[in-house]
Amino acid sequence: MNMASARMMDAPPAGLVRMRLVATVLLVVMAAVFLVSRLLVGEYPAWGFVRAFAEAAMVGGLADWFAVTALFRHPLGLPIPHTAIVPRNKDRIGDTLAQFLRTNFLIPRVVARRMRRLDVAGAVARWLTDPPEGAGGRFRQGASKLVAQVLESLDPARLGGMVKAAAVNRLREAEVSPIAGQLLKATMAQGRHKPVLDAGIRWAADALASNDALMRQMVHERAGALLRWTGLDETLADKLIGGLDKLLIDMAENPEHPLRLKAEEGLDRLAWDLQYDPAMRARVERVKEELIANPAMAQWLDGLWEQARTALLSIARDPEAAMAGRLGEVLHQLGATLRQDRRLATTINRFVRRAVVGIAADYGDGIVRLVSETVRGWDARTITGRLENAVGRDLQYIRINGTLVGGLVGLIIHLVDKLL
After folding, report:
1. What DSSP letter does each residue of 272-292 carry, written as one string?
2. How many helices (H) and strands (E) does the chain have?
């Protein structure tokens, strides 16, 4: 986030400026009424009620002005004790806020209990299939703008490192072999492996055709001198290439070809080994660890995160365009699927719940530390401006209410005094 954006964020909103002006004008008006009523009360005793109201209203307004101002700065610039409370205690505020988040939101059991009541998949499905209009559309625009600002303000390297570390940790914790075996078994049960076999056969046929000269050269070099002298090496090469070509054609045309059945038998055996053979599972785990330790994997994860971040920023900056294109169609279909398939929705809810609980358990302390360090890193002017912008409008209502309530109390006291 650049300096101009930061200054815009810290600038007081129009509503706060307006309410501050109203409260100040009301206080000035009460002072003017008090002066006028004091001049007229000797000639017109009824003005005593007006003077009592205005006098008490000034006291109430000034007291609340002092209280509101003392929260954020020294009134009139005077270093009065126990004023400028927020700037002087910003570090303690940051620590308290961080501890509040940790205690009430980032404890795994609390997160699990809250997430159990949430139907994330259902909410996403409704949002995708029936995007809200009007206020909902404005909310989407505001939320998208907030997401874009958050993504732009966070350190890409540090956030990417956290995402990469989380992905690597989850990959290390997951045993890949049984999952791969179950996927392969389910794929074969549904016949989805057959297009893969067909593609492999076509690739072998194309490779054979494109390497015809190379194979003939290999046969010629390995044939004996007698075969080369008689020209039988060419005949042998023709027979070999022709036989391989016919074999591949038969495999492509006949789903029950013995070699295809043998390949399917091998895949079925591989699926079983991946799930139940300890040696195979250990071998897969070793391969997984080698892949994780490979620098190329780290570079791939970095690139994947940067692509995801760029895509998220693009969608966040222009959500309507994203929803109107191909992405919108895919998301709409996803929403319809989530509405119809309750098993999928249950699986997604369970995954989201476990992911959020895992994040709270693994990174709760880091998030708390990030909040505390961020608040500590703000200067006094920044935290004062942002807190005042957040709650300042209500504080100005306190000034207005203090002025009016003080005036009413003064009027009642004056009335009681007259009656007694």
Report:
1. HHHHH-HHHHHHHHHHHHHHH
2. 21, 0
pLDDT higher than 50, residue 135:
no
Q: What is the CA radius of gyration of the chain?
A: 38
Checking if the pLDDT of 287 tops 80, the result is yes
- Distance, in Å, from the CA atom of 232 to the CA atom of 217, rounded to the nearest integer, reads 13
CA quadruple 258, 261, 267, 270: dihedral sign: negative
Contact 90, 383 (CB under 8 A): yes
Query: Distances in Å between the alpha carbon of 240 and those of 207, 231, 254?
Result: 15, 15, 21
SS3 category, 158: helix
Question: Are 173 and 315 spatial neighbours (Cβ–Cβ below 8 Å)?
Answer: no
Write the DSSP symbol of residue 12. P
Amino acid occupying residue 2: N
Name every residue whose Cβ is closer than 8 Å to that of residue 317 and which is 6 or more positions away in sequence: 144, 148
**The two three-digit tokens of residue 258, written as one number:** 């013995």
> Do residues 149 and 143 make contact, with C-beta atoms less than 8 angstroms apart?
no
Q: How many CB atoms lie within 10 A of CB 120?
A: 17
3-state helix, strand, coil in the chain (%, to 5): 85, 0, 15
Average pLDDT over residues 186-192: 81
Report which of residues 328 and 358 the model is more confident about: 358
Choice among 49-58, 61-70, 112-121, 378-387 with the minimum mean pLDDT: 378-387
327: pLDDT strictly greater than 60? no
| pTM of model > 0.85 | no
